[in-house]
Structure prediction request, 213 residues.
Amino acid sequence: MDLEYLIRRSEKPSKPSSIFMFHGYGSNKEDLFSLEQLFPKSYTVVSFDAPIRLPFGGYSWFNIDYSDILENNLDKRYKEINESIEMIMNNINSLIEKENLNKEDVSILGFSQGGSICWKLGLDNSSNFRRVIPISSFIHPSYLNNDLESYTNRLIYCSHGSLDDVIPLSIVDNHILKLSKKNDLSYHKFDSGHTISQENLISLINWINDTGI
Prediction:
């Protein structure tokens, strides 16, 4: 399945760095694409629509109910999530070839449910992505291929609002701290809810600039 997407092409003539973005549950490709103006013009920026159209509008990367988040367990979604991951990987690889992107500098960014996809992509397919940027998202070992302690040397920026009442910080904090032990992980907490605050954006853009190649 070919995913719908929006793209801002790099000003660089060939082999540009890239950022692929994954929106939250019930949203769409337009949501995060508004951030493209903040990223360096040397990057190609792509924002996907998720594959599942919801009856009330928007899209989803996989079916979920709120108990999945509160229980912080995605075990029953494992097969479905992996099918979504395979589809996303096919679309990313196709665009890398079509747009002549630099395979050595591909970043992924996701918010909320899109952030959980970002964690899965970045940890279990690390050879494909140099930077992993999950924001206000949930992560649990149940949907990963390996134990948290086995993931090493990933370049990660993650952030969360301390006032987030959709995905409470308390259910993800311990997992992220475990990952921070063996990875180049920048973990930021902001006095905000389930959103990307202005302070968060400034911090994120500074990190992207600092880790550029």
About this structure: The mean pLDDT is 92. The radius of gyration is 16 Å. The chain has one domain: 5-210.
